[in-house]
Write a structure and sequence with these properties.
240 residues; alpha/beta; six-stranded mixed sheet; three-stranded antiparallel sheet; 9 strands; globular; disordered C terminus
Length: 240
């Protein structure tokens, strides 16, 4: 039986004195693409930050298994684009280079291996030609690709993304979905990501974790699509 990449056991997620999810137990396996769906304030960001190691669980265990498929076994975290400071005077290459800092030695420039990962990440998301352009001069879709490239530069086993489709126009959403689907199929990346429910998710996602009443409820994308259609459909009373 396959070993999970990520396990949570009776984990309580949230901020000190303010838990938002309780008693979460789950296994995430290689190649899964899981969407975390729920309204604003439901705990999606806190959950992803806990998986990424940015927040500690308030109780229980969150464990990454670090020898998966030859990768380093860590998490590549893509924050909400709106939370990234627009004041940093960095170009695209420098933003992606930040993804390699954990493996760099103090007071040393990134080594050749890290430079290769940066070049690969830029190529994977299609922004190589923008490498010397200021990050703040990019479109929303281009900025999102750069943040994904920064996460890829860590050589992660899991890509954790917080609303990667937020505030993108329709063409950018389509382009981003194609990119994520390709990363999953060609690179075998495991993905865990939060977004507001959109039909575009079905091209990348089969499994969904729906946050309701401080609980995670497993579902399938088809089930939520059907529920969404029924909620949006005009009622019989309206039609009569």
């Amino acid at each position: 039986m396959a070993e999970p990449i990520l396990t949570l056991r009776e984990a309580t997620v949230g901020y000190p004195g303010h838990p938002v999810l309780r008693d979460v137990t789950l296994d995430v396996f290689r190649g899964q693409s899981i969407a975390v769906v729920g309204p604003n304030g439901s705990g999606k960001t806190a959950f992803l930050k806990t998986v990424a190691g940015i927040l500690r669980p308030l109780a229980g265990e969150v464990r990454l298994h670090t020898s998966i498929d030859g990768r380093r076994g860590g998490v590549g975290y893509v924050p909400q684009r709106a939370t990234v400071s627009s004041l940093l005077p960095l170009n695209v290459y420098e933003v992606v280079e930040m993804g390699t800092y954990e493996s760099a030695k103090p007071w040393r420039r990134v080594d050749a291996q890290a430079q290769e990962r940066i070049a690969w990440a830029l190529e994977e998301v299609g922004v190589t030609e923008l490498a010397r352009k200021a990050y703040t001069d990019l479109s929303g879709g281009q900025q999102q690709r750069v943040l994904i490239a920064r996460a890829l530069a860590t050589n992660p086993a899991i890509l954790v993304m917080d609303e990667p489709l937020a505030s993108l126009d329709r063409d950018s959403v389509r382009s981003m979905v194609v990119l994520l689907a390709r990363l999953r199929s060609e690179e075998g990346l495991t993905m865990l990501w939060a977004d507001h429910f959109v039909p575009a998710l079905r091209e990348v996602v089969r499994d969904v974790m729906l946050i309701e009443d401080a609980r995670l409820i497993w579902s399938r994308i088809e089930v939520l699509l059907d529920r969404e259609r029924r909620l949006l459909a005009p009622s019989e009373a309206t039609q009569s």
